[in-house]
């Protein structure tokens, strides 16, 4: 018998019962050992005075009456007796477990695990324990057909065969010593049956490190492969011409922009493959940096492509690129284009007469052939899945890749979700930008807000109004938006043209409404959250968000980023009567800061990672025991040490852990 043996070989388990475990993916003894509990039951005895009504606990006492069983129907019965804890008399009942009668003798001590009913001073028993236990009982995730007892029995059987001792240590001794980690078999045993909380914590610490360390090793190896010379293309751009372009800009770049651009250019120039995330708050000037990178590629004779999530964004970028580079041939490609136009564009891209291409998903469709595609950029990257990003990459000979995002990604997530990428951050806004003034008002103050908006409209302001988000009900969302639109149309009939934008509209309908708003044919735009992404309307200065407490911080910040894009003072008005503390807290934080990174960190703490990105869609890894937010310290240390190991040439050659010893800084550890 070894780790790879079927669990059917364990004592007490036959082929039939072994098969049941297949449902939870346990086939071998190793699978069984590595199936950790997700929580523990605390079987320490409690005083009934500490218990809340309905709480489940272990209650010990002295039996004062013999057990009596009453039958009342087919296979239905109730066993009852009284016991005393101190001076408190407790009525104990067990349903349909008449065989317990033998275990209950007047005068004996008993430990009952059950549900406390304070009013009746009664316990509905679940089981009788040999004694109140000091250790913690494992609770496993199960599916129908497998019981906790059966699983515990199987695991105990594996342990009594000493199977856990067969688990090879998979962490190098140098790391075990450095971080004072439990050995693997000891940790595994303690994960299932910890003696006490302290031992459980030690086991958990070791297993989490193991998980995060190997995760980081994989990322760092991927990264190292990208970093290898000649893994990509060397874009030999013309520095003189690029500098000339800088000089022509109507503004000078911020320090953060300069730093990001030189990181990008260094990647492009080298023969290594670039895989970089450019993150920065809305309006921090990412697009300019991306455009300059595209220009650099052009001066070296490479084509570049910029992919964005919507047609209107494609048009916006197309216009700004054309304005920035009037001498270049720039093409736009979207799926909505007329077939004949599209054909012309496609052949121009293929022949290389086009220097830069901007477009939507159409850019990665099969019909598109590029000519020396050297740089691809995606905007608002998490709208594109991993598969789409890869498709794009395969369109060229492994072109350099830059992804831009205006959703600041907390450091924690950046090194996990995008850990294989390098990150450049623009963490300052261009000088002279006026921060958006944010106010939180109650519904009762709407009258005042509306009459203020009326006076701002007279000064040519344009206004976004976001209708409340109704979770899980798109139709209610729409109903709300429609009602709000009617209300505001009536109220502002004399002052403004009010339009409605929502997700059920066709793309070209949405685009034409946005164009009208941009061209000032519309002054008030009522919308569901579909306008969240990237559209630039510099004269829109007011963002009114109804029931703002229904949105997360990151989303509110995104919405607020739609205003404050010009040189006029802009305002965000959050209308909310939050019922929860978290809702109030979010409203307050919004009025206190305009810093997207601070907000993203706060959001992560308040709502958790999955809520922000949606685990699946973001490609966030899932761990069995580690939590990337809670275990950030371990994750950081794992990253640090994995990066050092992978950067060691000796290790890469002989994979002998001993060679990493000199790289370990004794000071580094984690708690
Ligand atoms: P992002 O893509 O990060 O949202 P953009 O690149 O679209 O930001 O920049 C927003 C606006 O600020 C644009 O009108 C752009 O021309 C302008 N801008 C960018 N960088 C600077 C700068 N360093 N100084 C002044 N204005 C800038
Ligand atoms: Mg942008």
- Average pLDDT confidence is 86
**How many structural domains?**
4
Q: What best-fitting shape do the alpha-carbon axes yield?
A: globular
CATH class of the largest domain: Alpha Beta
In CATH, the topology of the largest domain is named: Rossmann fold
Radius of gyration: 32 Å
Q: Which ligands are bound?
A: adenosine-5'-diphosphate, magnesium ion
| Residue share in helix | 25-40%
Taking the alpha carbons of the first and last residues, their distance comes to 38 Å
Strand order of the largest sheet: 11-12-10-13-14-9-15
Residue fraction in strands: 15-25%
Put simply, the count of helices is 23
EC number: 5.6.2.4
Catalytic activity: ATP + H2O = ADP + phosphate + H(+); Couples ATP hydrolysis with the unwinding of duplex DNA by translocating in the 3'-5' direction
Protein name: ATP-dependent DNA helicase RecG
Domain Helicase C-terminal: 445-605
Write the layout of secondary structure elements.
Elements: H1 15-20, H2 29-33, E1 39-42, E2 56-63, E3 68-71, E4 77-85, E5 88-95, E6 109-117, E7 122-129, E8 136-139, H3 148-160, H4 173-179, H5 184-192, H6 197-227, H7 239-248, H8 255-269, E9 275-280, H9 286-299, E10 303-307, H10 311-324, E11 330-333, H11 339-351, E12 356-359, E13 373-379, H12 386-394, E14 400-405, H13 411-417, E15 422-426, E16 437-441, H14 446-458, E17 462-466, H15 474-491, E18 498-501, H16 507-518, E19 524-527, E20 540-546, H17 553-560, E21 571-575, H18 581-592, H19 596-607, H20 609-613, H21 615-618, H22 632-646, H23 649-654
Parallel strand pairs: 5-7, 9-14, 9-15, 10-12, 10-13, 11-12, 13-14, 16-21, 17-19, 17-20, 18-19, 20-21
Antiparallel strand pairs: 1-8, 2-4, 2-6, 3-4, 4-5, 6-7
This protein binds adenosine-5'-diphosphate and magnesium ion.
Adenosine-5'-diphosphate binds next to α9.
